[in-house]
């Protein structure tokens, strides 16, 4: 597994993520993904009610990104029959770009 590189240049050690899955097990880490996402949702709701800081939200984002890296390792297809996460990201970013371009053109023409 290679490093996961996000738009903000964050790199996560793929071998460390793989080791966590091997040590703790797939089912355990799948449940942990759900737990960390729930904690991020909670932190965001508290932030919007001014009961949490950006730092609290950032901490939960970090946890979610780490767990998503493990989830990608566990579930990303190795066959050509299914799109990989990277393929889906590229597709969805291209679609977003098209939508933004159309929106910008619409705004210019109005």
Task: Please provide a written account of the structure.
With 110 residues, this protein is mainly alpha-helical. The protein has 2 domains: 75 residues, no CATH class; 32 residues. It contains 4 helices and 2 strands. It has a two-stranded antiparallel ribbon with strand order 1-2. Helix 1 packs across helix 2 and helix 2 packs antiparallel against helix 3. The longest helix is centred in the C-terminal third of the chain and has 25 residues.
Order of helices and strands, N to C?
Answer: EEHHHH
Biggest beta-sheet profile: 2 strands, antiparallel
Q: What helical percentage do the residues reach?
A: over 70%
Which spans have pLDDT < 50 for at least 5 consecutive residues? none
Strand content: under 5%
Biggest sheet strand order reads: 1-2
- Secondary-structure class: mainly alpha
Q: How confident is the prediction overall: mean pLDDT?
A: 90
Rough shape? flat
Brief digest:
This protein has 110 residues and is mainly alpha-helical.
SSE topology:
Layout: E1 4-5, E2 11-12, H1 14-24, H2 26-48, H3 54-75, H4 85-109
Helix pairs in contact: 1-2, 1-3, 2-3
Can you give keywords for this protein?
mainly alpha
């Amino acid at each position: 597994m290679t490093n996961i590189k996000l738009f903000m240049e964050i790199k996560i050690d793929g071998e460390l993520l793989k080791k966590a899955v091997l040590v703790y097990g797939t089912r355990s880490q799948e449940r942990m993904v759900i737990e960390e996402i729930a904690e991020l949702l909670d932190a965001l709701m508290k932030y919007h009610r001014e009961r949490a800081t950006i730092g609290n939200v950032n901490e939960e984002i970090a946890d979610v990104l780490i767990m998503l890296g493990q989830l990608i390792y566990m579930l990303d297809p190795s066959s050509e029959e299914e799109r990989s996460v990277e393929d889906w990201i590229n597709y969805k970013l291209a679609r977003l770009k098209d939508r933004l371009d159309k929106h910008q053109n619409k705004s210019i023409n109005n």
